[in-house]
Amino acid sequence: MERVTGYIGRKAIDSITHLLDLCAFIYRIFAQIFGRPAAGRVLVGRIIVQQLYFTAVQALPILIPIALLVGSMVIIQFARLSGQYDFSRISVLLIVREIGPIITALLVILRSATAVTIEVSYMRVLHELDALEMAGVDPVRVVCVPRLVGITAAMVGLFVVFDLVSILGGYAIVWLATDIPMAGFLYQIAKAITPADIGTGLLKAVLFGIIITATCLYRGFEMKRQITEVPIATSRSSIECFLYCLVINVFISTVFYL
Amino acid sequence: MNAHLIELSDYSLPAVGSGSGIQGFDFALDPGDVCAIESRHPDDAHIFLRALAAMVRPLKGTYAFKGRRCDFHRYQELLACKQQIGYVARDTALISNLTVRQNLLLQRYYHENRLSIDLTDDELALCEAFGLCEKLDRRPSGLNAMETQAVIVIRELSKKPAVLLLGQPEDFIGHARFELITQIFNQLIAERLPIVFLSFDQRLVGRFANRNVTITDGALTTIAVKAAAGGE
């Protein structure tokens, strides 16, 4: 019994330590952002643009079909289950408040967070981070800040695109492909959606972006010198990112809607 | 009293790999010093080089650069020191998602805060000497091992460092290019740039070192020797 208690206690301490380390890491990145050092601004700006391109623009061909499929699926299901008046409201509730941020986060985790963990892990294992330091370049400034800003901005953009495509595209697909009565659907959506829904969705997207980037960067930086640890770190970071996103999602939904 | 360029006082370094670490030593480096490191365990010699580059946190002791004590808890101050140290060893790397040209210019991109700069004539001359001019816009994955190491040497020399730390320079520049090494060493010595190097090539040690640093069983001793005149 003592061994079990000890095991649980050690695991709890490890988890709390890890969370505190992660918070300290996020603080350090934000200190770099708000400290606004003059050196490297142009370089950092260019890396942010590149990161935005990789995470947002290159993800659109994947995100748009997913948004269309999810949007039409949700509209069809709720049109069958609920009355004409309710289903537009339920679609908004589900897509804007819950499904939109979570699926966007999942896509960013699968595409970008894993890539960032692998990239930073390799930089660590292959001494590229040391090379940056020897050039007097702070790795937090040129590796972490652009990725945090780029991925978070991309997350917000992708969330907006996902919501628009899934509602409007889903409406178009259902209208074209089924005989479900859609009269007044867009009008009902416009009535149902509130600024709080949009604000909450955007807040979730921003927090998801921050926690996803910080987690995958942290796992990359935490890497020791062995290349065999790269897949373990990648797997851990992606699972952790998704778990944190779910926790944040529940927390925000509880605070704003209960 | 003039301050030393690098001064390690009562310094202890941890054991790494097959090495036994180095305990409680003092070491000072001044302009004009050319130190050759000798150790039975290459890992001890390597960690000493890393310690001089402020890349290893000591178990105890103080690190001073140009007379100013460096606090390992003050990361930005440490970066400012590292920026002035040329470090070429087996654990030096190029940034893999940048081209050779961008790797050579990265430090200037960052500190001069602009991207519209190109290589200087000196850097281009070194690239020419190492046969890299045609490969400046390739990424490191498009270079062979010798070319990668040559780019690292050029990058570190083009930093205009205050001190140069070299781990087995003969491997980095190539045994076949021994004359090129001697030419570079001669030039650096003429500029009174302090050099610390680890080499298994006795020709290099004999011709250039004016101090021998010996690491044995965790103890570091320094002996002044007379180098062959300018390596000529």
Describe this structure in words.
The complex is a heterodimer of chains A (258) and B (232). Chain A contains 9 helices and no strands. Chain A has helices spanning 2-35, 41-57, 60-81, 84-125, 128-134, 139-177, 185-192, 195-222, 229-257. The two termini of chain A are 40 Å apart. Chain B is of the alpha/beta class and 232 residues long. Chain B folds into 2 domains: 1-84 and 162-232, Rossmann fold, CATH 3.40.50; 89-160, no CATH class. Chain B has helices spanning 42-52, 75-82, 100-112, 121-129, 145-158, 169-173, 178-190, 202-208, and strands at residues 6-13, 22-29, 34-39, 60-65, 68-70, 85-88, 163-167, 195-198, 211-216, 219-224. Chain B has a 6-stranded mixed β-sheet with strand order 6-7-8-3-9-10, sandwiched between helices. A 4-stranded antiparallel β-sheet of chain B has the order 2-1-4-5, with helices on one face. In chain B, helix 3 runs parallel beside helix 5 (145-158) and helix 4 (121-129) runs antiparallel to helix 5. The radius of gyration of chain B is 18 Å and the shape is globular. Chain A binds chain B through residues 38-43, 46, 119, 122-123, 126-128, 130-138, 142, and chain B through 53, 55, 75-76, 79-80, 82-85, 87, 91-97, 106-107, 109-111, 113-115, 159.
Write a concise keyword list for the protein shown above.
heterodimer, A: 258 residues, mainly alpha, 0% strand, globular, B: 232 residues, alpha/beta, Rossmann fold, 2 domains, 6-stranded mixed β-sheet, 4-stranded antiparallel β-sheet, 10 strands, 34% helix
Write a short abstract of this structure.
The complex is a heterodimer of chains A (258) and B (232). Chain A has helices spanning 2-35, 41-57, 60-81, 84-125, 128-134, 139-177, 185-192, 195-222, 229-257.
Please give the domain count of chain B.
2
- The radius of gyration over CA of chain A amounts to 21 Å
SS summary, helix count of chain A: 9
The separation of the N and C termini of chain B measures 33 Å
- Give helix and strand order of chain B, one letter per element, not per position: EEEHEEHEHHHEHHEHEE
Shape designation of chain B:
globular
